[in-house]
Amino acid sequence: MGKEFKIVVGGIVAEATLNDSKTARLVFDALPITGKANLWGEEIYFDVNVEAEEENGKETVALGDIGLWLAGPALCIFLGKTPISRGNEIKPASTVNVIGKLKMFPPSTER
Fold it and tell me: Residue 12 and residue 93: Cα distance in Å, rounded?
């Protein structure tokens, strides 16, 4: 897909790119999405009205990944460790569908 969009949290604006997944298309079709941002460790998340089935779900993610938390549903932006991370891993509360990446972080081959 490679669709680009902006994320605005407070006065911070970040550019992001969506991948070519069904979940990413669902999120893109729901834009613009607004919500109250919450923090969980170094993860920013907010509730969204986008529900999806698990699609290549991930238990750990890479720095800068954007994911849809299926249990929420919530859109998650992973800027670092969460309270359940071990070592250098970035661990969501439970499985997420990774839908894209913040542009300031390079693509990761780890996962």
Answer: 25
